Amino acid sequence: MIDLLLMIIGGAIIGWVGKKLARGDVRIPTWLTVACGIGGVLIGNFLYTLFFKDNTPGFDWWRHTWQVVVAAVLVTFAAGYRTKPRVRV
């Protein structure tokens, strides 16, 4: 239960930082920012452990850098998808 709470809080922080680093005018709701942050945490951890060893002592700055970059990419995609003009038939 505590892991879920930490993932939501960490996802919110990582998503907010990713939103600040994303290119352009990003206007997405808070829930989508948190979802992109959680996705950034999960995918960033997966990619980091795929390419590097998972035995860094102390605070792992590179892992969090991967998480923020992935979150910024997800926020950019989400903003582009939400602001895409809709064609009416």
UniProtKB/TrEMBL annotation:
It is a multi-pass membrane protein. InterPro entries: Transgly_assoc (IPR007341). It is found in: Cell membrane. Its main location: membrane. Keywords: Cell membrane, Membrane, Transmembrane, Transmembrane helix. The keyword Hydrolase does not apply. GO terms for cellular component: plasma membrane. The chain crosses the membrane at residues 6-22, 31-52, 64-81. Belongs to the UPF0410 family. This is GlsB/YeaQ/YmgE family stress response membrane protein.
